Amino acid sequence: MSIPPTRRLPRQPNLQQLRKQAKELLEQYRAGEASAVAEVCRFEHRPDPAALALSDAQRVLARTYGYQSWPGLKAFVDGANVAHLAEAVKAGEIARVRALLKARPELIGMDRAGDDEH
Asked: Is the pTM of this model over 0.85?
């Protein structure tokens, strides 16, 4: 079962800002801030407070935005998204289609609704 996202990406997401958010989430979690602890517990299966690493915080952050992994979120920010896939398909750019699907295989089952992916 997939947990619904709790955050929305800005119109033009910035990977550096997302990295900063992940670091802040980790710091807040380690400090015991209730909202960070709740967010980590919601999106991470049995988190270990003593061992939670930045990569874990990145995965949690990605999940808060509706992505299963940090690489999936990063690929979206880097341009591997359903809109670009549709453009590549319409233009007949097979190599680009393959590259986008290699970066984010889940795009094959998505549709577009405004600027959102489903």
From this structure: no
